[in-house]
Design brief:
By secondary structure, this protein is mainly beta. It folds into two domains: about 45 residues, no CATH class; about 140 residues, Immunoglobulins (Immunoglobulin-like), CATH 2.60.40. About 10% of the residues lie in helices and about 40% in strands. It contains four helices and eleven strands, in the order H-H-E-E-H-E-E-E-E-E-H-E-E-E-E. The chain has a five-stranded mixed beta sheet with strand order 2-11-10-5-6, with no helix packed on it. It has a three-stranded antiparallel beta sheet with strand order 1-4-7. It has a three-stranded antiparallel beta sheet with strand order 3-9-8.
Length: about 190
């Protein structure tokens, strides 16, 4: 849950269920994904009575996105430096990210490890979105390794302005606690025959 400042309520009438911001009408957008203004408490804040530290143990740096077929058109697959999810071989695109979580506080506690992603900059939304989570109970001073499965077609894709789900080429970012990790996604668009 995100806690918004008091003046936010005056800008968001209950009759408008739009998610995306509309600056021309003074509408700020809804949820942590679309509202970019100040907040009292951000999404995921205060979920434990103790503190935790994260360290990234294993995560890919580069991923090649294989196409399901080389017989698809470059114009329909590779528009805007991204490929359609329907043209990718999604079965080959499951990534495992391993994170060590340590209880650094003075009491035992349960931690909800939140994993967010954001697509490459440019015309794609730069807002991060929640793609995975895992609840971990740790006694004071203990550490546990957690594996989060990330499916490129599901978690690192975006919907373009025409409603087509695409996987953008370029630097995607994962946010895990105070960690930021980049994954470079590249497809073999140059091999596609028109």
């Amino acid at each position: 849950m995100t806690w918004y400042p008091h003046d936010y309520l005056a800008k968001v009438p209950m009759t408008n269920m739009g998610m995306r911001a509309d600056p021309s009408r003074g509408y700020p957008g809804r949820t942590y994904r679309f509202y970019k203004g100040p907040v009292v408490f951000p999404f995921g804040h205060g979920m434990s009575y103790t503190t935790f530290a994260h360290s990234l143990v294993q995560a890919p740096r580069e991923v090649s996105v294989p196409l399901a077929s080389l017989h698809v058109s470059r114009n329909t697959t590779g528009a805007s430096n991204a490929i359609r999810v329907s043209h990718a071989n999604c079965e080959a695109l499951a990534l495992g990210v391993h994170i060590d979580v340590k209880n650094t506080g003075d009491m035992d506690g349960t931690h909800t490890l939140l994993v967010f992603s954001s697509p490459p900059g440019g015309k794609w939304s730069t807002q991060k979105q929640l793609i995975g989570f895992e609840k971990v109970h740790l006694v004071t001073g203990s550490q546990k390794r957690v594996k989060i499965d990330i499916h490129v077609c599901k978690h690192l894709s975006v919907v373009d302005r025409f409603g087509i789900r695409r996987i953008p080429n370029g630097e995607h970012y994962l946010y895990i606690g105070d960690l930021k990790h980049s994954i470079s996604l590249q497809s073999n668009l140059e091999e596609i025959k028109s």
